[in-house]
Design a protein that fits this description.
Blueprint: E1 8-13, H1 15-32, E2 38-44, H2 47-57, E3 63-70, H3 74-78, E4 84-87, E5 97-105, H4 109-119, E6 125-133, E7 146-150, E8 156-157, E9 173-176
Parallel strand pairs: 2-3, 2-5, 5-6, 6-7
Antiparallel strand pairs: 1-9, 3-4, 8-9
Helix pairs in contact: 1-2
The structure holds 1-O-pyrophosphono-5-O-phosphono-alpha-D-ribofuranose (PRP).
1-O-pyrophosphono-5-O-phosphono-alpha-D-ribofuranose binds near residues 46, 103 and 162.
């Protein structure tokens, strides 16, 4: 695989800027959920990187669980098809204060489908925390309670976001220069 520097257009969100914002979100969430039974639900896989940094900035006791969904493909997603659950939670969320943690909201269909599913399980509350909001791409309205950054409609990678599964490990959000990316 290519070194990312060969197709890096720009760094959109630096490590320092991101960590500062995550610390702010951690304080906000800690204040809002003080005295509550907070459960963070992370949607695999991209959200894991944000989740672990966010958890370290949340100062109140909380638990974490994971779920995974896959869309039926880009075309299907565009037509509004539901995401398919490929890994379910181990936790009973009945009565829990659930906060969904996601790396990015694009069309909104993933979050919409997950919220619809989890709402049937009667949580005490259900809210959404996303690091990146690509708001221009939204096709279905989704509630976002905590937002790291609003970003333009550019192909981004790093910090959980992949290009063909690679480059998730980069500690910043980068923009792809498509003309220099060789791909498959
Ligand atoms: C990405 C991201 C969200 C979803 C957002 O996941 O992590 O789950 O897309 O897109 P949407 O708002 O249009 O539904 P992806 O399917 O790329 O899986 P990954 O997290 O494993 O990379």
């Amino acid at each position: 695989m290519q070194d990312y520097r060969e197709f890096l257009a720009e760094i959109l969100v630096s490590t320092e800027t991101m960590q500062k914002r995550i610390a702010e979100l951690g304080v906000e969430i800690s204040n809002d959920y003080r005295g509550k039974d907070l459960l963070l639900v992370c949607i695999l896989r991209g959200g894991v990187f944000f989740l672990t940094d966010l958890m370290r900035q949340i100062s109140i006791p909380h638990t974490v669980d994971f779920m995974a969904v896959s869309s039926y493909g880009v075309g299907a997603r565009k037509s509004g098809a539901q995401a398919r659950l490929t890994l379910d939670l181990n936790t009973d969320i009945n009565g829990r204060d659930v906060l969904l943690v996601e790396d990015i909201v694009d069309s909104g269909y993933t979050i919409e489908a997950v919220l619809e599913l989890l709402n049937t399980r009667h949580p005490n509350s259900l809210r959404v925390c996303v690091l990146l909001d690509k708001v221009e791409r939204r096709e279905t309205p989704v509630p976002i309670d905590y937002r790291g950054f609003t970003i333009p409609d550019k192909f981004v990678f790093g910090y959980g976001l992949d290009i063909d599964e690679y480059y998730r490990n980069l500690p910043f959000i980068a923009v792809l220069d498509q003309s220099r990316y060789l791909g498959e």
